[in-house]
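Predict the holo structure. Ligand: 2-phosphoglycolic acid.
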Amino acid sequence: MASTRIQRVHAREVFDSRGRPTVEVEIACEGARPGRAIVPSGASTGAFEALELRDGDAGRLQGLGVRRAVELVNSEVRSALIGQDATDQQALDQLLIELDGTLNKSRLGANAILGASLAAVYATAEATGTRPVDQFRRAWLEHAPNRSAGQASAARGNSTTGPGGDSLLPLPMVNMISGGKHAGGNLDFQDYLILPVGATSYPQAFEWIVTVYQHVGQLLTRAGFEGVLVGDEGGFGPKLASNEQALDFVVAAIEAAGLRPGEDVGIGLDVASSHFHRDGIYRLIATGDEELSASDVVNLLEEWVNRYPIVSIEDGLDEDDWHGWKELTQRLGNRVQLIGDDLFVTNPERLQRGIDSGVANSVLIKLNQIGTLTETLRTLNLALQNGYWPVVSARSGETEDTTIADLVVATGAGQLKVGSVARSERLAKYNQLLRLSEGDEFGYLGGSIFQSLRSS
Ligand code: PGA
Ligand code: ZN
């Protein structure tokens, strides 16, 4: 067997699903083939995310190049990592954090740092002849030894099973219709998603999703709307008369697929409200120009939860509106999964603030918001320890990299948000999960995660 000592580190600029440059890092251990990771990139990024280093050179790729980040990996990061043990993820990540020396990874860039952090996992897999999912599991158990098999903690209520124990295939949360910053339509809210809560296996869940998605496209087309062209994450991007109309189409498509809205398939929203919030005002444009307060938004969401089978709402309020978030949590937190994305930015300190102040009950987990695997695992573990459900998530700018599919299974986080079932940067993850679903190696909690919320 090859050694796991790092021998070679090499970064290059490659391109993501929006045609924007991003960082790919390869790391090879002594005598082994290199492992590689590619870093994703967001569009509706949170203000509190770690910094994504871009060249800013207006003469090249509109300033979006990542040559500087690549150069930093090929110089400073390379020097720091060569000779280190690729399996010691915590030490490697600590080294990278110290080398950067800033609070938000702005010197080396979170893209440079995350590429190196993840490539070490793939290098170890190559050197030891194991799968990435095994290496993510190892990293998770080293980070959170209390979570070893058979010690799954109850997320809420009296349930004895919960996320974060054994490795699990995830319940997918999938875009049907896209709005906001991800599509050309007029919808204010970013994602209208479905969660196949009644499916009893990952392959069944995925088939239901694909079937509903096909019906959404057909129903939109038949009604004279755009039902073919898709947004950044593969959801349809029609110009509809209202935000509610998107929900109506999704419900109709669930029914057209022969499934029961609510029982079989629930609805999720990513409001992504930070992008239409300013100075305490939430401005909606789908039905004219409406100015809403935080309380108005909470009322609207509550009304929708009463009328539609909504089981999950992400970023219902702005990333800095802790007061509004508290109201939202008090009103809906015992009925609906309330996910903080821009609010928490996968940052343990921001999540801790949410836990301490009773805000939200779930956290989106995006590796590049915080910038190393170790810190991502820290946030995930903090969430699980406090009964907050983690939802591992892609970015709107993605690639063929399948890290999040392996990570969500390895940690048993329970839920995954990747975008829709069109566009191969999304399917790369779903197809990886289909591979992992063979042979019954991993369990599936699916929508039973939500039962504990309903009964609490
Ligand atoms: P982003 O969108 O990657 O553009 O930030 C994803 C999300 O908001 O969940
Ligand atoms: Zn979001």
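The chain has two domains: 6-130, 143-454. The pocket of 2-phosphoglycolic acid (ligand 1) is lined by residues 42-45, 190, 270, 272, 341, 393, 395-396 (CB under 6 Å).
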